[in-house]
Amino acid sequence: MGLFKVSILGNGAAVPTARQHPSSQLLQHNRKKFMIDCGEGTQMQMQRFKFSYKNMAHVFISHLHGDHYLGLMGMISTFNLFSRQEDLHVYGPPELQDVLNLHLKVSDMHLKYELIFHELKEADLIYEDDRLEISCFPLKHRIPTWGFLFREKDKSERNLLKEFVEEFKPGLEQMYKIKQGADFITPAGVLMKNKEITYHPKPLSYAYCCDTVYDEELIPVIQDVDMLYHESTFDQKNEGIAADKFHATAAQAAALASKANVGKLLLGHFSARYKDRDVLLNEARPVFENTILSREGDTYQIG
Ligand SMILES: [Zn+2]
């Protein structure tokens, strides 16, 4: 179903260090880009990994702990210096709007573009285009926090089977007609029914759960998503600290992934104490095999 991928700009918890940046991700669906969280240093990470802001008009902020949003005002300011024209939509807890307004006021900054703020107050559909839906849902953390679910819409159009395309090499116009449901007649005059040469593409989905305690109430929300990014701030021996601080361990993230039957689990929001993160991976994998450690600068295909 086209391009659907997520790039990790930062996956560190709490404080920036020389080797890890606070939370931020760039999700790309077809031509559009969406930013999830914007920790300090996100602009530098965008440059370092050579991402552009082209077609990025939506930023989703999970909560107002500094490691998830302190890069936002800097980015808004840079956009102004670069004379951005396109609207920028920011989604976050209501207090974020006060924070942004105060910054704009004290620096007497008059934005050359429209900054449109969307308050997150309840689980809801918050964005929709013809191909994608984005909804928010509450997480359990020390302050109000939102998870985000990116879900492709079901298309009526069918996809061509690879073997068919390789064997018969249909032209563009013919491919378009087959996608709409047309049958195909081979050069030898044999009729191939549409169902034999196409399949119905499965809509793909991605969920972002950061920061949160281990919370089984999330299972119905993230059930069967193709990829889950879940925080894994601590290892098992720090399970008590994780619970006290409303964070989760890698094994807990894996347990949730398993119970929700997700396709792949991407771990992140690592405490700076783990110089070797394999300890987290080694605790998660026995619980949910299809687990990987997210890495800053890496891009993961969804589905
Ligand atoms: Zn937090």
Give the SSE map.
Layout: E1 4-10, E2 24-29, E3 32-38, H1 42-48, E4 56-60, H2 66-69, H3 72-81, E5 88-92, H4 95-106, E6 115-119, E7 124-128, E8 132-139, E9 145-152, E10 159-160, H5 162-168, H6 172-179, E11 184-185, E12 191-192, H7 194-197, E13 198-199, E14 205-209, H8 219-222, E15 227-231, H9 239-244, H10 250-259, E16 264-268, H11 278-284, E17 291-293, E18 299-301
Helix pairs in contact: 10-11
Bound molecules: zinc ion.
Residues 63, 65, 141, 211 line the site of zinc ion.
Kindly give the count of domains: 2
Query: Rounded to an integer, what's the Rg over CA atoms?
Result: 21 Å
Strand order of the largest sheet: 6-5-4-3-2-1-18
- CATH top level class name of the largest domain: Alpha Beta
Structural class: alpha/beta
Number of strands: 18
Biggest sheet record: 7 strands, mixed
CATH architecture annotation of the largest domain: 4-Layer Sandwich
CATH topology of the largest domain, by name, is Metallo-beta-lactamase, Chain A
Give the DSSP E fraction (strand runs of 2 or more residues).
25-35%
Q: Kindly state the mean pLDDT as a whole number?
A: 95
Assign an overall shape. globular
Low-pLDDT segments: none
**What string gives the helices and strands in order?**
EEEHEHHEHEEEEEHHEEHEEHEHHEHEE
Bound molecules: zinc ion
CA distance, first residue to last residue: 10 Å
The percent of residues in helical segments reads 25-40%
Distinct helical segment count: 11
CATH 4th-level superfamily of the largest domain: Ribonuclease Z/Hydroxyacylglutathione hydrolase-like
